[in-house]
Amino acid sequence: MIFLFSVVVGAPVEVTGHTGESLNIRCTYKSGYESNPKYLCKGACIYGNRIIMVKAGSPAEDQRFSLSDDTTARVFTVTITDLRAADAGQYWCGVESTVTDVYSEILVLVKQAEPSYFSTTETNPQSSSITVTDQNKSTDLVPVAGGLGSVLLVLVLCSGTFLILKKRKRKSGTALDQQNVPHNTEVGDQIFTCRASEIIVH
């Protein structure tokens, strides 16, 4: 309830803010009041016992409150910084007049600020970097495995070739021993010459 001989304009307006943030209260007034002093009081705003939070041209007791007047738009704005839960409640936008002050009712609602989450976004780059490291390790093993396979293949081929040549050498040696048994001197010389030529050819 405001003091006697006052004028209340319009219906109550609700304004909602969050703790720790700034809140703007916009108060409109009619033409002809551009040069009149403006203020914001809290509570019943009874004459003689008004709690004026901020008034144009005067420093506010609570430095979180400030007032600016746009006479062209006929709107004065009260800004509350670092909003607190205790700031919630009923306020009155007041315009001084020679006869009766003009008021408009404001209801301020204060909500708790929503918590912000930063730890989740910080852990994501670490997990992705671990995945990349594991992929690099697995890809580095591919050329190593390929090189070992090539070496083993060469060793197998060399071993097989060596065994085949060794078997052929044994067979050729046995055949020479059987055919070099002499029946007479002439035949033996001929056989020796023949086999020697074969060995040279091979």
From TrEMBL:
InterPro entries referenced in this protein's UniProt entry, alphabetically: CD300_family_receptors (IPR050671), Ig-like_dom_sf (IPR036179), Ig-like_fold (IPR013783), Ig_sub (IPR003599), Ig_V-set (IPR013106)
Subcellular location, record wording: Membrane
UniProt GO molecular function: transmembrane signaling receptor activity
Keyword Membrane set for record: yes
Alphabetical UniProt keywords: Membrane, Signal, Transmembrane, Transmembrane helix
All residue ranges annotated as the Immunoglobulin domain in the record: 12-111
Protein name in UniProt: Si:dkey-1c7.1
GO cellular component, one term: plasma membrane
Segment forming the signal sequence: 1-17
SMART domains per UniProt: IG (SM00409)
Species of provenance: Cyprinus carpio
Record-annotated membrane-spanning stretches: 141-165
PANTHER family linked: CMRF35-LIKE MOLECULE 3-RELATED, POLYMERIC-IMMUNOGLOBULIN RECEPTOR
Listed Pfam families: V-set
